[in-house]
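Appendix B, record 7
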Amino acid sequence: MAHVTSSGKSNDLTNDNCKGNGGPVVCFGEMLIDFVPTVGGVSLAEAPAFQKAAGGAPANVAVGIARLGGSSAFVGKVGADEFGYMLADILKRNNVDTSGIKFDPNARTALAFVTLRADGEREFLFFRNPSADMLLQESELATDLIKKAKIFHYGSISLIHEPCKSAHLAAMKIAKDSGCILSYDPNLRLALWPSAEAARNGIKSVWDQADVIKISEDEITFLTGGDDPYDDDVVLKKLFHHNLKLLIVTEGSGGCRYYTQEFKGRVAGVKVNAVDTTGAGDAFVSGIIYNLASDQSIFQNEERLRKALYFANVCGAITVTARGAIPALPTKEAVLQFAET
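Structure tokens (predicted):
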């Protein structure tokens, strides 16, 4: 594998680089309500009040792709309650296909209280005992929708509990058998797993099936048991596998690294004034999947891959300039406009 430096201009985006006229992307997993303090830099206990926002990484990605002009659908379960109907409505209003959503009359939509403390650490408090998203059954899967997908995208939270875990594995098999590209963002939420070991094993249990994986530096350290996330050898020996077409390591505002069967390199980040980092990773994933859905040549064509990753970096950067995940996700026009400045 030849090492490629970050020379070569990747920031001359045009509409040609990101047509987005590809097949539909199906995002599978959880959608929930995030409650975020009305003031920043406080613990959950100190927060004077909370504002509700739609959350859940797979749902955010579905909206992000649709916002960019791509075709996306969400498959998952919410409660047959006010919050569940509100979430489905938000997806509909953002042009996401909601035919794969199930409503559970016996379980509530999941809630998460999230805060960014003064020390910069995020604090999570989840209400899921069990919540509707954990109860999706294999028999409830929208199989025709999954079969039609070009890309099937998922996280790891849906692998924690049954029956959702079995539904998740069945959905992956349907997608794989239909020739879908499998896209995986583990999105580690340690507080939801029974133990760190369970999280490590659960996340790795589907690792070898993915065609595309996006992972953060922290997740590398966690999955490798403390290895240096910046060491290419660690990434290639411990995380890259022979079925993988693309492994992306995100470094926040620093940009991202990429590894394929043929080449590796990095694309620098985009400097902005960050207001709220919620949803930045999901926006990045939306940007790269949106490009992938219309152009699979980026697995072999490094120049095109670099442009797609720069596009994804811009998606993430724009998202941190406004509060909330879904409200801050950019349109394609906003990304192209930003790239010109």
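Remarks on this record: The two ends are 34 Å apart (CA to CA). The chain has one domain: 25-340.
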